[in-house]
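Hi R.,

As promised on Friday, here is the backbone we talked about, encoded as structure tokens. Could you run it through your design pipeline when you get a chance and send me back a sequence?
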């Protein structure tokens, strides 16, 4: 008997994930803070797609704003302050 591997069902919607740090602080007089890393953790047994939205794109740039996180893994997302 030949068993077929079942494909996981795709589910649309929002799920809670872990983001660290919970807050980014940029200082105008400290250029080392103009680029910061946000880490997104996926605690689930399945991959997640993500999209980071920016409410003020003239001030901030999100590097790799769209992507996927493998199960039980994390990705780093770089946020740059562009208009100091």
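Update: got your reply. Pasting your designed sequence below so it's all in one thread:
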């Amino acid at each position: 008997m030949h068993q077929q591997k079942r494909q996981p069902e795709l589910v649309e919607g929002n799920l809670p994930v872990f983001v660290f740090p919970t807050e980014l602080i940029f200082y105008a007089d400290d250029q080392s803070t103009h680029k910061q890393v946000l880490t997104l953790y996926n605690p689930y047994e399945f991959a997640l797609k993500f999209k980071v939205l920016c409410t003020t794109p003239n001030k901030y740039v999100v590097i790799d704003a769209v992507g996927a996180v493998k199960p039980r893994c994390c990705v780093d997302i770089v946020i740059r302050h562009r208009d100091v």
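One thing I noticed while checking it: DSSP finds no helices and six strands in the chain.

Thanks again,
M.
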